[in-house]
Amino acid sequence: MEPAAAPPEPASPPPPTTVRRNPPRRARPPPTPLASAKPKPSSLSRFLQDEAAASIPAPLPSSSSPQEERLKVFLRIRPLPDRDRCKAVARPTPGKDPRRKPKQAGGGDVCLVPTGPNSVALTVPQSKLVDPKRGRTEVFDGFSAVFSPDSTQLDIFVQVMNPLVDDFLGGKSGLLVAMGPTGSGKTHTIFGSPRNPGILPLMLRQIFNAQDENKVASQPARSFSLSMFEILSEGKGERILDLLSDATECVLQQSSIKGLQEVPLVNLADAESLVSRGMLKRSTAATNANSKSSRSQCIITIRGIHKRSDADSEHLLSNAVLTIADLAGAERERKTGNQGSRLLESNFINNTSMVFGLCLRSLLEHQKNQKKPLEKHFKNSMLTRYLRDYLEGRKKMTLILNVKPADDDYLDTSFLLRQASPYMKIKYTSLEDSSDLVSQKRSNASLICQENKKKRKVQKPEVLGVEQKENIETDNIAKVSEEDDTQHKFLNSELRRVSRSEAIMTNFARALWTVLKQYKHKLVESENAAKSMKQLIRDQDIQIVELKKELEVLNSCCSCKNVPVTEDTSIDQDDSVSSGQAGRSFGSLSNKPNLGSYDASVDNFHLVAEEVSKELKSHGPENSSGESVSCDAPSISLIDEQELSSRGLKPEKSCCADAFGPKSHAEEGNTKVEVQAIHKKLDASECFTEQTSAHTGGVMPSSSHSDNQSDQSLTEHHMLPCLKTERVSLSPQFTSCSKKATIEQSEDETEESCKITVEDIHRDVSRREVKHPDYLSSSQRVSSDTEDVSSSQSSLEFPGMVAPQKKLEELDLEPERCEPGVVNATVECGIGHSQAPEQMSDCGVRVPCLLKEITCRAKASTAPSKVSEAEEAADKNKEGSASRPRDTKKTRRRLQPAAAMMLKEFTGADLDVDTKREERGKSPSSAASGRSDALVRLLKARPVRRA
Ligand SMILES: Nc1ncnc2c1ncn2[C@@H]1O[C@H](COP(=O)(O)OP(=O)(O)OP(=O)(O)O)[C@@H](O)[C@H]1O
């Protein structure tokens, strides 16, 4: 409809100036499809193309190069309603001034008129002009096509949708988006009506027509599926509803929608009915601008699957998707009058439209200036997120702008044209082949990443350490995000730390195991040592117990024997003991090298002993054996020996076996008798020694036997066997213990015993005066003859010697005959009594020695001559005996503790010193010093004076 020609008005004012912000542009010709993918135009297409060619002016040649494909923007101008139908806006007539304001048919004015196939002129309504005299018109050029209000649905489909369908059928995805204000005819353009179908129905028809033609032409079979959903907002957030299912809400994940049902398209009728059902479910509402206004963004997707003709199984050749989006039109609150939820919907709709426009603008800005980053506005709405690939220029998109040309819609039209006209400059330089496959791959990878993240939150880090590698590979394919990289680094560091800790703990465990092994070995050794020690202690205890038993036996024996013995040996015992002790002690003294001629006289003990033995033999046949035991010949000892012999044992052996054997626990009476026999032997030997000393004039030393062979023959054959027997029979412990006990006891009782023994001596002396006048006379002579000696002895401070010496002096005995014996007796008084406890400890009892009488008688007759001979022999052997320190030691060891103490007190260390000095060859006179010197001088003075 051409506008009515206005009459010329020469006097009229100049027309209003129209500012053309968008100069009219010629629409680009539709892209030429590829020859290989170019479908054969169907009858509908040919019809549509014919119709379009008839109704739409031929497209002008595009100024851009064919290789440079740009975003297509079509503009469709909705016809005015009948009451507002603009009669002035129509196809611009060539030769007429486009700046002239078109007049509306029926009196109504329009603000937008097409000025060309690719341009429109937007004129500011008169009511909007500040200066009514100055009009203002804007020309927007460059559209792919401008569809006038008189254009039909087929025209739109032919020029807008047909190229997309051709690309889709050729395996390329495409998108068509209808934009415009509310009530501008978007839904009408997309869906149409049964009588006047829109782009979608026409597309379905064309697709199925092409399918039919392919079947006829034996082209590769293809199948299609259709999905339809809407994005709406019910106040707070956006929702996606599947319009082909029972209102199932779907979830948008990246660029894919989970739960969206894709309905295969069997035929056109089913497809059209499917779309019709979806349209019925779409959210619509009546507003002041539109009685059936869409309240959501509706997206229809058609997916085509190509099948190989030469294969039985399905093989995916392409997965092209053709998407059509019917956006809800922007609304003005003043115009729509929405309230409440409608108002909220309006905000959502306007916001989505704004985001969509921002994405395109950002893409455009990015293409203009690569330095500007591509803003990610698509994140701000579901629609843009779903259409991300299109909004970022990776897929091809087509826009169709629906506008209303009425003056009342000037603002909406002006806003849309100003917003969308720049999109025509968007270029597609890097379109993706089978872009849907790529997007689908990216969607799947994104889904895998999200699922992996969820698994990592649930699973333990240790388990993740193993699965992490697999996930890393997957993530690498899917371009793992930075968060995954950070987590991967953290897990790797944790794995290294754990492995390092494990190595440390392993080494520590090994070291600990080694230490424990060593400790175990040491513990075993310690246990063995403890066992051995326990065994040793047990043995010691057993020995101690045995020794205790032996001691008890001995004590019992001693206690049993003491009583009768003491009764039987009233006087003779003391005599024998005193005389024997005197001889022994003096003999011990004579062993000292510094003792002068008296020491040397002891060496003649052998001769004296022979004489004594001869005398003893003369007393009885039993003495002919030469044994000390047999020579005793007392009645008690004989009885004991008889008892012992009745057992078939020798006396010595019986002593060992019966009295001290640990295993022999004989009857107590027998044991006592045996022990008594032993002690008798001991005492007999002592008595024999005393006898010999008496025969030798009291010079007989008990230790002198070690100095010469005669002594050894006497003691070893007579006395030592018994002692040896005791020592052998007794255990070492017992010996040591007894010695220790004896020493201690003797040391403690030294002084007391000395006194006692001295007193006993005095008593013995007094008794001997009565019983043995010869002996007493000799003693008296000794005492009287040793006046000078007593004075010198008193100077020795020998307490035990003072009283006896005085008593002996009081006796006034002859000094000449008994001088040596007196001296021996004087010395022996102190020493011999000191030996008494030792004898008690060793033997346990003081066995009476009947030999004393014999000894005394023999001593009385032979002492002077024998002593003199012994003195001479001692002088000869003085140096020889002095040169034997070992014998000295032996003698000293044989001294009993009390006697040893006395001797030590008497000689002390001076003896040792003197011995050493003498060994060095020094003169005896110079070596004599101290008390020993005094004693030596005293002893040496005797022979000299006598001589
Ligand atoms: N080209 C046209 N020819 C005849 N009628 C039209 C045309 N365009 C639109 N209409 C009519 O205009 C009315 C509004 O159209 P439509 O609903 O498509 O607008 P809309 O843009 O979709 O609005 P909304 O955005 O609110 O949904 C409908 O009744 C429709 O029949």
Automatic annotation (TrEMBL):
Composition skew (Pro residues), residue ranges: 1-17
Compositional bias (Polar residues): 576-588
Keyword S-adenosyl-L-methionine: no
A GO term, aspect molecular function: ATP binding
GO cellular component: kinesin complex; microtubule; nucleus
Low complexity: compositionally biased ranges: 52-66, 702-713
Protein keywords: ATP-binding, Coiled coil, Microtubule, Motor protein, Nucleotide-binding
Annotated PROSITE patterns: KINESIN_MOTOR_2
Highest taxon above the source species: Eukaryota
Residues the entry annotates as binding ATP: G180, P181, T182, G183, S184, G185, K186, T187
Region (Disordered): 1-69, 84-110, 569-588, 691-714, 769-803, 858-947
Ranges of biased composition (kind: Basic and acidic residues): 873-888, 913-922
One annotated GO biological process: microtubule-based movement
Domain Kinesin motor: 70-426
Coiled-coil portions: 516-550
Recorded family membership: Belongs to the TRAFAC class myosin-kinesin ATPase superfamily. Kinesin family.
Protein name: Kinesin motor domain-containing protein
Species lineage: Eukaryota, Viridiplantae, Streptophyta, Embryophyta, Tracheophyta
